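Quick question: what would this complex look like in 3D?
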Amino acid sequence: MGKIGLIVKREYIQRVSKKSFLLLTFLAPILFAALVFVPLWLSSIKGDEVKKVAVLDSVGKYASHFKDTEDIQFVPAEGDMETYRADKEREIYAFLSISADLLEHPDAAILYSEKQIPMSMKKEVNNQIAHILRDEKLASFHIPNLKEIIQESDITFDIRTVKWEADGSQNATSAEVVSIAGFLLTFLIYIFITSYGSMVMQGVMEEKTNRIIELMVSSVRPFDLMIGKVIGIGMVGLTQFVLWGILTFVLVTGTLFLFGGDAGTAELMQASSAMEAGAMTPAVDPTQLKLQEIIASIPIASLALNFVLYFIGGYLLYASLFAAIGSAINQPEDSSQFMTPMLLLMVFALYAGIYSVDNPDGPLAFWCSWIPFTSPIVMMVRLPYDIPLWQNLLSLVLLYGTAFGCIWISGKIYRIGILMYGKKPGLMEILRWIHYRG
Amino acid sequence: MDLLETQDVVKQYANHLALDGVSIQVPEGRIFGLLGPNGAGKTTLIRIINRITAPDSGTVRFDGHLSRPEDVYQIGYLPEERGLYKKMKVGEQAIYLAQLKGLSYAEAKKRLQYWFEKFEIMEWWNRKLEELSKGMQQKVQFIITVIHEPKLLILDEPFSGFDPVNAERLKQEILELKEKGHTIIFSTHNMSSVEEICDHIALINHAHVVLKGAVGEVRRQFRTHRYQIRLQTSEALPKLEGPLFSEQARTAESEGIYNICIAKRPEASNSELLRALGERYEILSFAEEIPSMHDIFIQVVENNPLKTE
């Protein structure tokens, strides 16, 4: 085994066998799944307590129209509000007082309670009153069957989006699902590159501060040491990615099985996608039926391949720069001067990615998916939209070209930096190191 | 034959000249002391020999050929600033570092077990390095330096961090390695240990070699022709003066016994001096004052003002 191989092996095994790695790898998907599913599950549980609302209808034409729901039971009030207020044994939650014709005096309905009225109850009461008033208003027009006519003309519509494939077939697509996929991948690649890149920096700094570096470079070329570390840690990242992929698959399949069939999950996924997209559109049946088809329309294999390619490229680019920074500084406190611009660049890339979700072919998304420092992150947003292959390839070529350039320059800085102790070097001095003879 | 030879090595850093035309010859199978005050350029020279950095000009010859990358397998280096992976298990770590020096896994393990037994640290094999005491870490580091049985060992302040018992043990190890034919470059500020174990030295000051040669020769070169004479006489002792010698200082030890420091003219032999004095006084002891390496070091360094800059 070559020296680089030995170094890669050490970096990999030391990190993969750490308890923290195992914990993070196996607990994170479970936590993530819990974050998505537990709130959905909790919100689907209805409170088993039925709240009573006493209705005091002074007008006399409203009380009979209130319909009980799963949570709320409307009862006619016996006595006035004061008796209810005085009597603690009545077991009513709220007291609805309607004192005048509501079409003329909308202020005349008041919902009293000793507690803060929950949103859901207020909404329900509002809905019911609005419904009652609407019927009353419609009836006042004296047009026969008006209610039915209006119901018939009340149309909800959700357009189906279909993409023409090159082979002539057509695929149903969903703007929501595709943008969510892009968003998740963007976020994932951002987290991977930052966390594994800074792991490289810490590793380099550890070797420098505990002075093993002097011994190491007497056996190994500094460049080999750097590249071995970068590769080893990158492989840890890929391992985690693959394990997460497998675990997510297992968890999702398991959940599908537990929830007993597609209908339930489709509903869940629909709800979750609506929730994450922040869209308040009501669930519409045709979309649900097409869900399987839509998911099938996302090119999962090519997405996964691109994710890995962009992760490797972006990681090599940033990790080599992180390694150069780690080699130049003597203590973690000194890192901020060089880390801040790097982090700003990455955060910019992340935001460019997030804003590109709404407009994946706009100029921001377009240009940022070329620039090597932002392309791994922004391209993740555009990929689910199936961009032209030449764009994909050219962006990868630019990314890898820059990454190898950065590795070369970082190697030059690294071999000098790791042996420099004492004063914190300035940026100009570091750039001068590039020209030094090894 | 010289195992290592540097010829006119020059190394310039941004703000200072670290080495300026340094030539040293390290004879095979000997212990070579590389001396000099802090910042003189010793570490830079050691790094160049280790191929950690390259000289700006000049050559390094190792074992008869120009230094080449695979020579690092034949060099064992104990840096002054010790350091190992704190979180890594001792045995695993030692095997890894030995593999980087070209040993196979099996060979590394076999040899390490021998050394760990010898230094009585076998029970620490599966412990993390940070759990070991400083002295034990030093032992581990020493083992790692010699494990691949290199032709050349470079030991930078090897005794620092050892208690006297272990320091003595280490000294014996070093002498044993010399017996086995290893060549050792030994860098230290501890001049008494130089006298004890070094065969040759080179003294570097301000980027130049200012003194080099066999230890005995170097000390003779700095002889002052002063002698300590202890003599006895029943009469009053006048100031000792003659064509060959002159008295520098005296202390009366007890009735009729004196310790006298005498400077002798270089051309006069010891026998002539003894004859001249022996005629009149009873000579109890006679010894030449040979300057210690410590004195030579201070003398040379202080008489060498900045040549560079």
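Answer marked as accepted. The longest strand of chain B covers residues 2-12.
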